[in-house]
Amino acid sequence: MAEPTSDATDEGEASGDAPETDPEAPEIDLPADAFDAVLDALDDRDPGEPLRFEGFSVERDDEGEYVLADGDSSTPLDERDLHEELSERAPAVTDWYAFERVVGEFGPRRAFLRWIEDADGETVATRYAALAEGIERAWGELKITATVTDRGERRYDVRHADDAGVPVDELEAHEDPLDARKLVTYDEKGRYRPLKTAPSLAGGWVFPDLGPRDLYETVETIYPATVANWHREREGGLDVTHWRETMERQSGIYGVVKTWDRGEGHEHVNWVAEACCDDSQCLKRREWEYDDETDLDVDGGDGAFPCREPCSVVVSAARKWTRLESEQPRTYEFDLTPSEKEQVEAIIDAVADGRIDEIREADTKEGANRYRTRFLRAKLFDDEGNLGGVPTEPDEE
Amino acid sequence: MQSLVIVAHGSHLNPESSAPTYDHADTIRATGAFDEVRTGFWKEEPHFREVLRTVEGDEIYVVPLFVSEGYFTEQVIPRELRLAGWDVSEWDSDGLSADQATLVAEDIDREVHYCGPVGTHRAMTDVIVRRAESVTDDPDVGEGFGLAVVGHGTERNENSAKAIEYHADRIAERDRFDEVKALYMDEDPEVDDLPEHFESDDVVLVPLFIADGYHTQEDIPEDVGLCEDHTEGYDVPETVDGTRIWYAGAVGTEPLMADVVLERAADAGADLGTALDDVRETTRVATGD
Q1: Residues in Cβ contact with B93 at an 8 Å cutoff, skipping those fewer than 6 apart
Q2: In A63, A272, A349, B46, which residue has its Cα 20 to 30 A from B282's Cα atom?
């Protein structure tokens, strides 16, 4: 299983290592569709209303000629001249085209694609130079590499972070973002993944050449709604629903979970969060707490994208725990050797940490080794499966 | 921009639960009738609570992939989608007639058209018949055949039985099958005694469920006697007490279900162009040579 990826905002900085000064943007040809989009945008504007690019603007004058304003200079141009001028400024024009016409307005998609290349922090020249080298970003277990073509079009390679550096032809290549649905259904061992943000995404595949919209759709398919929630958080509008409010809302077979909160503290919710929401179990960064006045005592994790309320997996598990935790403790008496006590602890640890498959068959040094565990069962269980021969219910004796 | 959101139950345990939802979404995407088609789930992701924030459009149609009106369509989905001011009276339904309600979803502060479930739509009758055609591999199946439509009884949901009866009655009126019966899992007439309810030698058994899972793959096959234990599997058809039973599995897996989703959206005002015709054509059972 892969290590959870740490905070992408720290790790995912542009890796192009462009020099601080005078970055050299690659040669860009101005594609016809970008130029046509500029003409259309100018047509949609009133004369004198400028269309702004980085470092210059273009507007129509009352005579229908184009006026390019670059610093102090302002030059009237016909369409052919305008094409020539814009071709010389192709990086800025294609950058405008990429975000205004290809990516579009939809908030989460736009913010995500701009974040990938730090479009709100870096100049076009710096970004194009970095894109020419490849800008890498982490998102959950994904590694996204953004590049730019010689026509200023963004292209993206998406793969499991564990497959970084593996040649594309050694991976299963996909084009359709919806193919990702199959990639997220099962983990490496073929087990169904009920939680898409669990750090159990299998690798071995790549989307080697996605456009911006398809990149967004692919990420949305692998980690649903994570971009939308991350975007709301960046905009300061993440709607967090804390534990109590979430449990109060439940009904039907889940209605019982609200009875677990008895006004006697929130330790039980600490245990839930430690069990289910730790980075080893889910890559979302838990932002919900017990209630809006009471924080939980366990860490929310370091994920790039937030978790805004207890998810359906947590609610379902909480329903089970509500019933189990309504039982009163009893005292059972049976004898264990010190090593047996430690072995019970080792077995619990191995199951809780998902390590049982890593413990080798003949490694009897491990408490959770199968032979060791079978020996313990053979020695300590009676014919009814009672540990130490002690019945669970006293009246069964 | 016109968006379709299909909402379904999903499962923490069974990947087959969401498979029909994805399949029908793909069929509808291929028609191009909507600018986007999204899916949201109760037990998978994106959850009902978060699906609307992934939607870009301003004309949003939400269609529940559920078989009947009840707890999910009346309480859970409106609550989780945060439909402001929702009250079940918005649908003014007798348990079968919910069509749509237009309400603001507080999550996105935009209006959505919240449609009735697919299972009670009149077009669902055609899907049940189509399912019978699929499982018998005969586009003209009917003569010499009985048809059993099976669902939960009223123990879980009063409207569940209403939907079963509604479709069974409509199919019976067509005089296509020799006999049509509504049977139930937890009340009379029970599916366990299927051969007793039919005179026909061949009976197609169509469960009114959205997805294959515990009920359709374990419960019903064992109750009907198609197998002692579901892990053994069974043939289609399988003979039980002299009756050849053609067990169809969940009707919701039938490709024509995409048509019912579209019908729901169309009833709520969606502009579908030729999508309905396209889907009926592309999902039909091939006629033999």
Answers
A1: B69, B116
A2: B46
Q: Which tens digits make up the pLDDT trace of B32-69?
A: 999 999 999 999 999 999 999 999 999 999 999 999 99
* pLDDT band per the 50, 70, 90 thresholds, residue A279: very high
Q: Name the residue range of residue A362's domain.
A: 338-396
Q: Residue A239: its chain B contacts at CB < 8 A?
A: 107
Q: Is A332 contained in some domain? A: no
The pLDDT value recorded for residue A396 is 57
Strand B36-41 to strand B2-8: parallel, antiparallel, or no bridges (unpaired)? parallel
- Identity of the amino acid at B234: Y
Q: How far apart are CA B193 and CA A69, in angstroms?
A: 84
ipTM of the complex: 0.93
Q: What are phi and psi of A305, to 5 degrees?
A: -115, 145
- Partners of residue A313 in chain B, C-beta under 8 Å: 12
Q: Give me the number of domains chain A comprises.
A: 4
Q: What is the mean pLDDT of residues A113-123?
A: 97
Q: Does domain B2-118+254-282 match CATH 3.40.50.1400?
A: yes
A197-201, B6-10, B99-103, B184-188 — which is least confidently predicted? Answer: B184-188
Per-residue model confidence as pLDDT tens digits over A226-259: 999 999 999 999 999 999 999 999 999 999 999 9
Residue intervals of chain B classified under CATH 3.40.50.1400 are 2-118+254-282, 123-252
pLDDT for B176 beyond 60: yes
Sheet bearing B110-115, strands edge to edge: B36-41, B2-8, B59-64, B110-115, B100-105
Tokens of residue A162, six digits:
């564990």
- Preceding amide of B237 cis, omega within 30: yes
Distance from CA of B70 to the nearest CA of A (A): 12
Q: Could you tell me which residues of chain A have a Cβ less than 8 Å from any Cβ in chain B?
A: 106, 108-109, 178, 181, 185-186, 192, 194-197, 220, 224-225, 228-229, 232, 239, 249, 251-252, 308-309, 311-313, 316
Residue A316 is nearest to which of B12, B49, B51, comparing CB atoms? B12
| Residues of chain A neighbouring B12 (CB-CB closer than 8 A) | 194, 312-313, 316
